[in-house]
Design brief:
Number of domains: 2
Number of helices: 11
Strand content: 15-25%
Largest sheet: 10 strands, mixed
């Protein structure tokens, strides 16, 4: 009889375009043939994936819907869900109800009440769900979180992060849901920097403060400013101040409409230390009041798909989940609150919006420096006196808060 250690994990790959193709490539090229077996693929437009011909050559069944895979009597140990946001909840739910473990890409849902439903379904199924915030699986973040929980730095005072990833026409036209609030079937998407490309960094602010390895801090209030330069439904720029239920201030700045690119930086102020990443070093560095330094390395040091390898190994040899539904819930709750906190998304003034025809994208004159100044001064744009900024009221979040249209 094969031991768990020797078990070949059967995998259902859900979504093989875009980021899903990256997952597929990693499965086919970096996993040993005796470790995994892809027993099915779910994608209604599988033919458009660069991996389609290889899947056909390997005679892997392809279904347009996840229900069709299970309807044919097939089973899988692990489902990897890398489909568009609006399908995550339903596909995770179906996989769990058919006895399949799940690794779902972030965010696990656009709505916090759906995350809560998945927690109940997961518990009833006696299976687990991992969520693909890859920093949370890194040694650097796990070691840092362990020291924070142990009280090494004292009480957390203020945590902040900033990221500029300019995106243009190709990004917003790559599919039929980018930048949208809702799809043609009335399914919520809420695609934005906060809920997609830069969701990792909002999640990280909350995750490192979680009271246990598998938990995140719970947001209690939010003041949000959201703007857009691109012709989209939702926003491409956000600045937010969040307070957790333990009274820690979190500041988050993110934009797809800056002139320049700035990969994620963060600065965590504690009673007895300051921890930074990408401000002065490509490593996470903690400096205490006596000037003593401790380096954690970079959260990008580990393999990008460590989360995938962890999921496969956890099917073989069960162990605690470090980033599951409870950990991911706080980011979704916070994102929902941001959408609710602002009655109307404010366009940037036309006089400030520039067009780069070579790169086919819009950018906002002065936005880079304005948000960097806000980051360094712990301010929101309206507090910094930005002429384009709009002040919004503080939004109170309840633990049982549900997204309200």
């Amino acid at each position: 009889m094969a031991t768990n250690k020797d078990k070949t994990v059967s995998i259902l790959m859900v979504g093989i375009g875009g980021y899903g193709y990256c997952y597929l490539t990693s499965l086919l090229q970096e996993c040993e043939v005796d470790q995994i077996q892809i027993v099915g693929v779910v994608d209604p437009i599988a033919r458009q994936s660069p991996g389609y011909d290889e899947l056909k050559r390997l005679h892997i069944p392809i279904c347009p819907q996840i229900s069709e895979f299970y309807a044919d009597g097939r089973m899988a140990d692990l489902a990897i869900i890398a489909s568009p946001i609006q399908y995550h909840y339903l596909q995770t739910r179906i996989a769990l109800k058919h006895g399949t473990y799940v690794l779902c890409e972030k965010p696990v849902s656009a709505l916090v009440q759906e995350v809560d439903q998945l927690i109940k379904i997961r518990d009833d199924s006696n299976k687990w769900v991992m969520v693909g915030y890859q920093w949370s699986y890194s040694k650097a973040i796990q070691d840092l979180k362990k020291d924070i929980r142990a009280g090494l730095f004292g009480r957390p005072v203020r945590l902040k992060t900033l990221c500029f990833w300019p995106r243009g026409d190709a990004y917003y036209q790559r599919n039929n849901w980018a930048g949208k609030m809702i799809d043609s079937n009335d399914a919520w998407i809420l695609d934005s920097p906060v809920n997609n490309a830069m969701a990792h960094f909002l999640h990280n602010l909350l995750y490192v403060l979680g009271e246990d390895t598998h938990l995140s801090a719970i947001p209690e209030t939010v003041v949000a400013e959201i703007y857009r330069a691109n012709p989209i439904e939702n926003y491409d720029t956000a600045a937010c101040r969040i307070y957790t239920d333990q009274g820690t201030e979190l500041l988050f700045y993110a934009s797809h409409a800056t002139l320049g690119t700035k990969d994620a930086i963060f600065n965590f102020q504690f009673e007895n230390a300051v921890i930074s990443f990408n401000e002065f070093s490509g490593e996470i560095i903690a400096i205490d009041k006596n000037g003593k330094e401790k380096s954690y390395g970079s959260p990008d040091d580990d393999h990008h798909f460590l989360k995938l390898f962890e999921a496969i190994e956890t099917v073989r040899n069960p162990k605690p989940i470090v980033c599951g539904l409870e950990a991911a819930r706080s980011q979704t709750l916070c994102m929902n609150a941001i959408q609710n906190a602002v009655s109307e998304i404010k366009p940037f003034p036309k006089s400030l919006v520039q067009r780069d025809e070579l790169k086919k994208r819009f950018w906002v004159n002065g936005l880079d420096s304005a948000l960097c100044d806000c980051y360094h001064n712990n301010e929101l744009p309206h507090e910094a006196g930005c002429t384009w900024a709009k002040r919004n009221e503080t939004f109170q979040i309840k633990k049982d808060f549900q997204f309200i249209v």
